[in-house]
Q: What sequence folds into this?
């Protein structure tokens, strides 16, 4: 009985999507333009990469009974892409499989990535069938229900992505992606398999808009089985533009179950009677997320420059479990962003103030930052963070960028007035002509851990690259984030690894392009 | 006169019986920022603490002042003051270094003279410098209100060779005394400090510097890089003895301001602020 019900849902859903595509197709002739004569374009390339790492770890782990080890990783990738003037694009990349995670690192050759893209009826219907690609985004402005940055979406998927426009005011998009286990991928050689795939992601979005006045969207996101069982997220978003000012409001809700459960539960269960002016969040349940923002409040002040204000409000319930997006659960905050840009100088002063509650703890913070660019490729950025009940943090960055070199130095002091914990990162790239570069990085983590890295890069030809590096940390892979402007939530950054290494990297590339 | 000079040089090279604990006196702000790799880059009045041969390079006359609070020393404060003046090829300098904490204080007074022996084209030169120093060390004694104090004299000497516009080589030697030698390890109270270093100047914007310091049988390597931007601010970073350091120096028409830091092995960071003033446009003044 359940199977019949499931198949019925599939049929109704397929019919709905087909109907939407048909509507779009009927509208399309008005949008279609006569295509100019153009040629079939074919591109190809082959990329070979080899890396030899000699590492020495500071500690032994249960799965690592040696304190030092050497690795040889090499990878061959062959890419081909064909673009047909009638709107068909085929892309395929075959590669040896060392990008597969875990135990499936044997050097077998697999279809590492591929898609069949199409663009018909003057752009009215477009999309792609894809294999092992990351297609994780929707067009919401404030609530990112689906994000490429999500930690729950580390794997690439296979499936279909469709986008259809009906006239000038309606669009629909649909993504169905199967997130396969790396073992499955290895078994099938990377080819799409038409069975299995317990972990599925489906996203349907409808949006109506008139570009200069309003937009209204509705999004349904479903994640089946896999790590997080069956769960569905629905969201709606509205936007109005009045005199150049955008007023945005978005609401989303998560619940267990699939598409079928949507009919048995209310989409949005707002408690209007509990809402108060001094506690707007009482309107929402723990399964809800809400965000509102006003953009475009900009005041020109002539010679003094321009000032802009962006006020907003954000709420995410304790039980809002949309792992595919970018959310911080248990958050309620009101915020105001103000910036000033002088008329004559390339500078910007920004102040962000926020007040709210996170997991029952009240917080207030102000982040001030100033960014200035000078002639000759010099840039200076300063930031300070003040949080109620805690000591402040401050950061300053210098960037000097020219044909000769690129030097970036950033210092950050936490616990100002107390421990004065200094973190410092200096990165330098010196270009000895067009073929040789020397890079180095020095890192001090919170006044106590010191690290270094040195690298030589040799580029005798455009298609050949050789790098030799050694040091006690890898500056690009250790998640050093403090050199960015203060993000309100990324105050913590992690200590660097304590591993010494020597690494040799080679890249050889061939390629070409032809038309027919 | 020549005999006195030879005796003075001999005292530098073979260790005169001077008493002081002045290891830190060489850590002027720019040296800190570049990981201690400054012996071949020493210039201006501050060179009296690192390599007296550098006094003859840089601005003339010049006044240098810095202040630091060393990490890990309760109530510790140190400061350096130096003044250098003279002709294009011969200059004299006076310097005073003072370290004070809740329980002790060190003082170093230095008088230096430096001479440019050879001057070539495009900024190449060979210079020599020597210092006579008087060092004092005092600490609280066992008797309340009393303090033990000792003073002694010694000397430093150094040489800088810049054979090409892009390369500089340097060597300096001095004598210091460890006020609290570890007798259980058989540490000698006397330590001679020898430094040598090399620098590479690239397009007047980048300088790469390397130096070694040898003292008490231990050799320390120092690496530094400085990049002069268009603003003009010089960005500096260094690495020495497994510790990171860095800083920035702004140069105006008559004043330099600098901030530097250096991490130590114990998880502390010493900050130093410094300034150097000079009279622009005077004969013998080189752009810093």
A:
């Amino acid at each position: 009985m359940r199977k019949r019900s499931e198949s019925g849902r599939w049929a109704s859903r397929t019919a709905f999507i087909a109907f939407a595509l048909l509507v779009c197709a009927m509208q399309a002739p008005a949008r279609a333009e006569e295509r100019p004569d153009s040629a079939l374009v074919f591109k190809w390339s082959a990329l070979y990469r080899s890396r030899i790492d000699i590492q020495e770890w500071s500690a032994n782990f249960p799965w690592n009974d040696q304190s030092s080890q050497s690795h040889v990783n090499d990878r061959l990738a062959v890419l081909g892409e064909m673009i047909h003037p009638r709107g068909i694009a085929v892309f395929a990349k075959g590669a040896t499989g060392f990008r597969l995670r875990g135990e499936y690192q044997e050097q077998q050759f697999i279809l590492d990535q591929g898609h069949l893209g199409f663009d018909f009826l003057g752009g009215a219907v477009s999309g792609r069938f894809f294999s092992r690609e990351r297609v994780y985004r929707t067009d919401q402005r404030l609530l990112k229900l689906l994000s490429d940055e999500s930690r729950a979406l580390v794997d690439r998927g296979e499936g279909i992505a469709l986008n259809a426009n009906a006239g000038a005011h309606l669009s629909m998009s649909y993504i169905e992606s199967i997130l396969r286990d790396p073992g499955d991928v290895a078994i099938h050689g990377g080819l799409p398999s038409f069975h299995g795939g317990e972990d599925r992601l489906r996203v349907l979005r409808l949006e109506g808009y008139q570009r200069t006045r309003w937009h209204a969207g509705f999004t349904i996101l479903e994640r089946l089985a896999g790590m997080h069982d069956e769960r569905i997220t629905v969201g709606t978003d509205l936007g109005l533009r009045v005199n150049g000012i955008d007023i945005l409001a978005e609401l989303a809700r998560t619940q267990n179950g699939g598409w079928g459960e949507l009919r048995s539960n209310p989409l949005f269960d707002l408690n209007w009677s509990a809402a108060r002016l001094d506690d707007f969040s009482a309107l929402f349940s723990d399964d809800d997320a809400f965000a509102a923002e006003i953009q475009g409040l900009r005041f020109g002040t002539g010679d003094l420059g321009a000032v802009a204000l962006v006020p907003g409000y954000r709420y995410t319930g304790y039980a809002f479990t949309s792992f595919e997006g970018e959310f911080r659960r248990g958050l309620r905050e009101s915020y105001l962003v103000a910036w000033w840009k002088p008329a004559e100088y390339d500078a910007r002063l920004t102040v962000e103030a926020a007040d709210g509650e996170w997991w029952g703890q009240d917080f207030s913070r102000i982040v001030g930052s100033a960014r200035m660019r000078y002639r000759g490729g010099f840039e200076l950025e300063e930031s300070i963070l003040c949080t109620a009940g805690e000591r402040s943090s401050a950061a300053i960055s210098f960037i000097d960028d020219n044909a000769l070199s690129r030097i970036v130095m950033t210092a950050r002091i936490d616990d100002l007035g107390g421990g004065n914990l200094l973190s410092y990162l200096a990165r330098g790239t010196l270009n000895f002509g067009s073929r040789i570069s020397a890079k180095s990085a020095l890192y001090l983590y919170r006044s106590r851990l010191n690290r270094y890295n040195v690298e030589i890069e040799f580029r005798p030809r455009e298609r050949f690259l050789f790098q030799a590096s050694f040091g006690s940390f890898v500056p690009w892979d250790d998640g050093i984030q403090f050199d960015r402007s203060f993000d309100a939530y990324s105050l913590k950054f992690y200590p660097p690894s304590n591993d010494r290494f020597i690494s040799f990297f080679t890249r050889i590339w061939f390629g070409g392009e032809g038309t027919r | 006169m020549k005999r006195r000079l030879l005796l003075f040089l001999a005292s530098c090279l073979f260790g005169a019986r001077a008493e002081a604990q002045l290891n830190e006196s060489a850590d002027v702000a720019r040296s800190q920022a570049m990981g201690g790799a400054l012996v071949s880059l020493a210039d201006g009045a501050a060179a009296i603490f690192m390599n007296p041969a550098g006094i003859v390079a840089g601005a003339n006359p010049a006044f240098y002042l810095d202040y630091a609070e060393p990490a890990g020393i309760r109530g510790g404060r140190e400061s350096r003051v130096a003044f250098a003046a003279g002709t294009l090829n011969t200059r004299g300098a006076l310097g005073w270094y003072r370290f004070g904490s809740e329980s002790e204080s060190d003082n170093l007074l230095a008088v230096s003279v430096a001479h440019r022996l050879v001057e070539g084209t495009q900024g190449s030169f060979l210079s020599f410098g020597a210092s006579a120093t008087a060092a004092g060390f005092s600490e609280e004694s066992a008797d309340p209100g009393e303090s033990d104090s000792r003073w002694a004299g010694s000397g430093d000497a150094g040489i800088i060779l810049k054979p090409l516009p892009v390369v500089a080589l340097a060597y300096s030697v001095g004598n210091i005394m460890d006020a609290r030698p570890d007798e259980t390890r058989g540490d000698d109270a006397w330590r001679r400090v020898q430094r040598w270093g090399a620098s590479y100047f690239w397009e007047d914007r980048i300088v790469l510097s390397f130096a070694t310091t040898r003292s008490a049988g231990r050799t320390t390597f120092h690496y530094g890089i400085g990049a002069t931007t268009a603003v003009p601010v010089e960005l500096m970073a260094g690495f020495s003895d497994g510790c990171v350091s860095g800083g920035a120096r702004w140069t105006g028409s008559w004043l330099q301001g600098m901030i530097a830091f250096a991490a130590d092995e114990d998880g502390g960071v010493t900050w130093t602020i410094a300034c150097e003033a000079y009279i622009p446009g005077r004969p013998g003044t080189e752009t810093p």
